[in-house]
Design goal:
Helix 1 (about 10-20) runs parallel beside helix 3 and helix 4 crosses helix 7. The protein starts with a strand and ends with a strand. It has helices at about 10-20, 40-45, 75-80, 100-105, 140-150, 185-195, 250-265, 300-315, 340-350, 365-370, 380-390; strands at about 1-5, 25-30, 50-55, 70-75, 90-95, 115-120, 120-125, 130, 155-160, 170, 180, 185, 200-205, 215, 220-225, 230-235, 235-240, 280-285, 290-295, 320-325, 355, 375-380, 395-405. The chain contains 11 helices and 23 strands. Helix 9 (about 340-350) links the parallel strand 20 and strand 21 (about 355). It has an 8-stranded mixed beta sheet with strand order 8-7-6-9-5-10-13-14, sandwiched between helices. Strands 18-19-23-20-21-22 form a 6-stranded mixed beta sheet, with helices on both faces. The radius of gyration is 22 Å and the shape is globular. The protein folds into 3 domains: about 1-70; about 80-275, 3-Layer(aba) Sandwich (UDP-N-acetylmuramoyl-L-alanine:D-glutamate ligase), CATH 3.40.1190; about 280-405, Mur ligase, C-terminal domain (Protein-Tyrosine Phosphatase, Chain A, Alpha-Beta Complex). By secondary structure, it is α/β, with parallel strands linked by helices.
Length: about 400
């Protein structure tokens, strides 16, 4: 077959390489930067047996409509390439929020050897050995699955904008929706649609459940009372407690991980000892100052407000040094931290010191007029902002709320 694979910078390359290794002829096209041997005009002049395109490509792109050739997504291509040779079990996790924490929590429960692939990196379990770091595009699942098969282990894969459907279980972690693909598609609908081939699907609260076998709304399995979670499945009841269940962000992730474990026949009670991940509401003391680190790719208004409330509750003091913004040049973060959302956070928090990270609003704009009088300092990166915060804070808390790839 002659296959056209679109978007080499967001997972298209490993997909194209996998087809090539099977003897297919592949034309990879960089549809965003134009840095490929085959450009768009050349591709438009050729005939293909199959077109593989990312779900985030503008549906109006000419390469999707110039012929009657079948078009499949990167997610579907990976499912076809994996075939029946998948790790056991293989869990796919997608959603606007909580993917990484859910993945790490579930990995802490699975027995034996396995591979955990998330935005924080790819790890070999049970050693928790860091292997490498790559994107969470569906194309990256091919290498992660190969690593898992090599050790005859399980695979947990965090994926963006949907799942391949090849796995034993698919999890959608959030009902948060937004538009993508040039504003023409809705993310939640795309994620739900991607599960049509999944044998078992676990849905976070608020996600509409299709009436078919193998769909499990979280409400049917788990409930929380404060810091205790109760889960029921197949007539069996499990319970675990964890202080992190008091934080909405962690409660959702831990309950999803626990429910997934129950569906897989695994006792979730070890989650009682699960601790916060670095950059995801982890807290530590530096002398008399509490540092709450919530700087990650999913940082937003709600998680920032939650991190500040957590810091005030733990420290017992209202004084906050807030390090906030989006790190410059961090192209791996798909959804930005908009200035209006940052402004809303700042004006709700009333920090004692405000360290802005990244591009500051332009002089003369309403956002500049509102922010400049409140700004204590300006930094380019999270590390620079944190250093400035340490220099300016002798009591209370430092809260890191920078949207960046960690």
């Amino acid at each position: 077959m002659h296959i056209l694979v679109l978007d080499t910078i967001h997972g298209g390359k490993p997909i194209g390489d996998a087809y090539t290794s099977r003897g297919e002829t592949v034309d990879p096209v960089d549809v965003y930067r134009g840095n490929s041997d085959v450009d768009v005009p050349t591709a438009l002049s050729r005939t293909y047996d199959l077109i593989v395109a990312p779900v985030h490509l503008d549906p109006g792109h000419p390469l999707l409509h110039y012929s009657g050739t079948k078009v499949i997504t990167h997610h579907e291509a990976v499912r076809h390439l994996l075939g029946n040779d998948i790790p056991q079990p293989m869990i796919e996790i997608t959603g606007a929020r909580g993917k990484t924490t859910t993945a790490h929590a579930l990995a802490a429960l699975l027995p034996g050897r396995g591979i955990l692939h998330t935005s924080t990196g790819t790890f070999r379990f049970p050693e928790k050995e860091w292997i490498s770091r790559s994107s969470i595009t569906p194309g990256s699942v091919l290498a992660a699955a190969s690593l898992a098969r090599a050790i005859n282990g399980w695979l947990i894969a965090e994926e963006s904008l949907g799942v391949t459907g090849a796995g034993t279980l698919a999890i959608i972690t959030s009902d948060v929706d937004y538009t993508f693909a040039a504003g023409k598609r809705h993310a939640l609908a795309a994620k739900i649609a991607s599960t049509q081939h999944s044998r078992c699907v676990l849905l976070a609260e608020g996600i509409p459940a299709e009436d078919r076998k193998g769909i499990f709304p979280i409400e049917d399995i788990a409930s929380c009372d404060g810091t205790e979670c109760t889960l029921t499945s197949d007539g069996k009841t499990f319970r675990f407690t964890n202080p992190l269940l008091g934080l909405p962000t962690y409660r959702n992730a831990l309950v999803l991980a626990a429910s997934a474990a129950v569906l897989l026949g695994i006792d979730p009670s070890p989650l009682s000892s699960f601790t916060a991940l670095e950059g995801r509401m982890s807290a530590r003391r530096e002398g008399s100052v509490l540092v709450v680190d919530n700087a990650n790719s999913g940082t937003n208004l709600l998680t920032t407000l939650e991190a500040v409330q957590y810091a005030r509750n733990v420290s017992g003091l209202n004084d906050i040094t807030l390090v906030i913004g989006q790190q410059e040049g961090d192209g791996k973060v798909c959804e930005g931290f908009a200035h209006d959302q940052i402004l809303a956070a700042i004006e709700s928090i009333h920090p004692r010191h405000l360290i802005w990270v990244g591009r500051f609003p332009e002089h003369g704009t309403p956002a500049y007029a509102r922010l400049d009088p409140q700004k204590t300092a300006h930094a380019r990166t999270l590390d620079e902002g944190y250093t400035l915060a340490q220099q300016k804070t002798d009591h209370g808390s430092i809260v890191l709320a920078v949207k960046t790839w960690r």
